[in-house]
Specification:
With about 300 residues, the protein is mainly alpha-helical. The protein folds into two domains: about 230 residues, no CATH class; about 30 residues, no CATH class. α2 crosses α6 and α5 packs across α6. It is rod-shaped and about 170 Å long.
Length: about 300
């Protein structure tokens, strides 16, 4: 898949840097939102802790067998606690982002419910005024036409005002429904998932945030340790098996010529002497063969 171990070495380092950097960003800003009263100080503190956590994980991997038990135990516990703090910061960041996307939606939904209730109340008031007018008119004799007209003139402005309010409310309700459709695009996937799992939106979003934080920061720490592992092994490819050297054939003619020269005390080179000595060295005889020779 990769041309050489060096490219994989860089890939592991880039993955460790990107995941750890993203986790640190989300965690630092999530914690700064949680402690908004000292936001800048919290960013400095959380950033230093994030960096220290990664260095601590690398240190433990490199020097696990050389540091004492107390040192090892404390750094391990501190690293695990920092992972939990980072996860809490990521949870705060993601939940804040979710709430920011749904605040407008919830606000418009509440306003829509209120206006629909108000419209229903106005319809009831209109119906009540009409019934009250009809009852008052029926109580008057048939020949009291002027009194009946005055009653209608007295009630009609109230009914007209209710009609005006109802028309205005219907227009506002229509605008709110359009705004809800536009706002719902941002939280549409969450709404769809809530319908799929037959649950409310908040529960589904909380579930997915927990899945993310359980994978995100631990994966960052594991990638940092993996990068250290690659560095300690120099990123080298597995060594290829070496070919067996062929045994050097003995040149008997050359060896005999060398021996004749030595007998005649003629000059001989060091290489020729060494070759004769190597051939003349006694080889190890197996135990079984030695036993046979002694028996003979």
């Amino acid at each position: 898949m990769f041309e050489s171990s060096k490219s994989f070495h860089k890939l592991v380092g880039f993955s460790a840097l990107s995941i750890a950097g993203s986790a640190a960003f989300f965690s630092v800003f999530g914690l700064s939102k949680l402690f908004a009263g000292a936001q800048f100080a919290v960013i400095i503190m959380a950033g230093s802790l994030e960096f220290g956590k990664l260095v601590a994980a690398s240190f433990l991997y490199r020097y696990w067998d050389t540091i004492n038990k107390l040192h090892k135990t404390y750094m391990t516990i501190a690293t695990v606690i920092l992972v939990l703090i980072t996860s809490a910061g990521i949870f705060g960041f993601l939940s804040n982002a979710y709430q920011g996307a749904t605040v407008g939606f919830e606000k418009e939904s509440t306003a829509l419910i209120y206006k629909e209730d108000r419209l229903e109340q106005l319809q009831d008031d209109k119906q009540f005024l009409k019934e009250e007018l009809e009852a008052a008119v029926k109580e008057l004799p048939e020949n009291y036409r002027t009194a009946k007209r005055k009653l209608r003139e007295e009630y009609q402005p109230k009914i007209n005002q209710i009609n005006t309010d109802m028309m205005s409310l219907k227009a506002e309700i229509g605008d709110l429904k359009i705004a809800l459709v536009e706002t719902g695009v941002e939280v549409g996937p969450a709404i769809y998932l809530a319908r799929v799992f037959d649950s409310d939106v908040d529960t589904v979003v909380k579930f997915f945030i927990f899945i993310l934080i359980f994978v995100f920061d631990p994966m960052a720490v594991i990638f940092v340790i993996s990068y250290n592992h690659v560095l300690m092994n120099d990123g080298l490819e597995p060594s290829k098996p070496t070919k067996k050297k062929r045994k050097k054939r003995i040149d008997t003619k050359k060896m005999s010529d060398t021996l004749i020269k030595m007998i005649n005390r003629e000059p001989v080179s060091e290489d020729e002497v060494e070759e004769v000595v190597q051939v003349a060295e006694p080889k190890e005889v197996p135990q079984s063969r030695q036993g046979r020779k002694t028996q003979i």
